[in-house]
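INTERNAL TRANSFER SHEET
From: sequence group
To: structure group
Subject: inorganic diphosphatase

Please process the attached sequence and return the structure record in the designated field. Keep the field labels unchanged so the import script can parse them.
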Amino acid sequence: MPPPANDSLFSRLSATNPRVNKSLTPSQNLTDQEDLMLLVPYTKGPNKKPYMAIIKICSSFSLLHGLFQLASMTTPTEAPKKRESYQSSRPPLNERIISSMSRRSVAAHPWHDLEIGPDAPTIFNCVIEISKGSKVKYELDKTTGLIKVDRVLYSSVVYPHNYGFVPRTLCEDNDPLDVLVIMQEPILPGCFLRAKAIGVMPMIDQGEKDDKIIAVCADDPEYRHYTDIKELPPHRLAEIRRFFEDYKKNENKEVAVDDFLPADKAIEAVSHSMDLYADYIVEGLRR
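Return from structure group:
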């Protein structure tokens, strides 16, 4: 639980920056619904007019720490001439920055906060972790929700299609459900798109079940008409299978790939992973 923004914190803020308007008093205890507004007049600039900033302090400790630093900053008395027009043209601080500091604008966790979509389990949202053609293995960092670099592949192979996960799903390996999305273009890691399940590739990775949903982008005109994996060219399926059979060999890790299964099995797998996730959330609430 972060410490409340009380009088002692306000005193520290005032001591660090004597320009803080001391006529304002802080709330004794900030709850999640309360915040504190401080009016901070900065040092006069070249135009002899004071810069004014409205600082919104929430009950987040990290935000408080950042705002203390912001409040202790001073504006140079002599600013370069080339910046005068820029500073006079940009919007006021409370419109330009304060909105991004509110609790409602905190970045969402892609696994838990992104909805799977109203048409799931047939058509669902998925978050891309690895771009088509990439040799870098990116993956979701479960703690922060950011996409991190896991490793560079040890073999001379690249991902044949965009690869990611389905939000609000859970599998036996305690990860969200994996999905390989076939489409025309590579997608940047961290973006999400609508995918349509057309099949599933059963896979065992180092003794653990690690099935991959095979899908097409539901908004790609070249692929959205596919409804089942058997409609794909056989060579396309051979490429996908060979990639997953080989991409960990130089790491001395065993991967076994079974025969592709049709669309109804893929939809069943998505539905099952949605149920597992829901059960996990309910169990967490009970605790």
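Handover comment: The radius of gyration is 26 Å. The chain has two domains: 7-105, 123-286.
Transfer complete.
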